[in-house]
């Protein structure tokens, strides 16, 4: 299938940014969750950075975590001070980050080891769930220390990426 040249560059994602209350606590959480150490820790800010975000001024402490297929920016806003937001998955503009795993049982064991409770019991998609395909795909939702919506998926069928 040939890609439309008007959308060239929009076929892959570079990173996801997650705003957190406490950078150190979140680094510990995401390193424990993924088993990957952060690659960089720094601070950025000033009027130019603020302008691109629609702010008057900003200072951001951050860390970068490189997953196999996506980078994560973990961001602690110092100026302006971050405001708490809380989204349920069914709310408009809510987003979540989904981690792909090969073994759901092993992933659930890892969550338990780092004292993270899933939002509910994991499910495995079956025909009665209303899907036309993807049977055997396992999913579960959970949250990071700041309440960010996260998901685990052990994909099958059309949920499984090619290549």
UniProtKB/TrEMBL annotation:
Q: Which residues form the VOC domain?
A: 12-155
Top-level taxon of origin = Bacteria
Q: Note the InterPro entries from the entry.
A: Glyas_Bleomycin-R_OHBP_Dase, Glyas_Fos-R_dOase_dom, MMCE/EMCE_epimerase, VOC_core
Q: Does the keyword Metal-binding apply?
A: yes
List the molecular function annotations (GO) for this entry: metal ion binding; methylmalonyl-CoA epimerase activity
Keywords, ordered alphabetically? Metal-binding
Which PANTHER family does the annotation name? METHYLMALONYL-COA EPIMERASE, METHYLMALONYL-COA EPIMERASE, MITOCHONDRIAL
Record's protein name: Glyoxalase
- Organism classification, top ranks? Bacteria, Pseudomonadati, Bacteroidota, Chitinophagia, Chitinophagales
